[in-house]
Amino acid sequence: SHVSSAPKATLFFPEVKAKLGAHVDLPCVAQGHPPPKYSWYLEDEDGNRRKLSDSDRLQTSNGVVTIRALRMTDEGRYVCIARNAAGEERTESVLTVIVPLQARLVPQEQRVEIGHEAVFNCSVQGQPVASVTWRKDSQQLLADGRIQLLDSDRVLRIQSIRREDAGIYQCFAENDRDAAQAVALLRLDGWY
């Protein structure tokens, strides 16, 4: 007769990051005798947990949960409990869904007379919210009174346009997961 032994986790990933729309496998493998049975739960920030049941996007098979076509609502703490007659083992995998950053600069090109003002708008999509920095002809652009950065640095406003303001402007959006950039052109009226 076999000596029974409580489940011991041998494979799981504490942190998993995957892109929106991708598919992901969360393994939970435990050794034990008799062979353990697995239950999966999704736990929210308040510690409430609901048992995962199979759907068209989610399958649990032995010690693996597969989620297809990831959505933001799939984020959270996935708890696996491996149980047999001798005991149980709990493992956790925190799933983070990454939304790729996209940046757009509007307008992409503008012509302004000397002495007038120019406004560029950097619109950023993606999660989490990114920090925005600006460059002009590859040099970092800093606010100095005449040059203003507004709306969490999403809007660049240049007052009293001078000749040297003409050129290529870039906005860079960055977060801890991703980066994106967009480019626009400022021309002076009557100058080429």
Automatic annotation (TrEMBL):
Every Ig-like domain range: 7-96, 100-184
InterPro entries registered for this protein in UniProt: Ig-like_dom (IPR007110), Ig-like_dom_sf (IPR036179), Ig-like_fold (IPR013783), Ig_I-set (IPR013098), Ig_sub (IPR003599), Ig_sub2 (IPR003598), Neural/epithelial_adhesion (IPR051170)
UniProt keyword list: Disulfide bond, Glycoprotein, Immunoglobulin domain, Membrane, Repeat, Signal
Keyword Nucleotide-binding: no
CDD domains, alphabetized: Ig
GO annotation, cellular component aspect: membrane
Annotated Pfam families: I-set, Ig_3
Record protein name field: Ig-like domain-containing protein
Organism: Tropilaelaps mercedesae
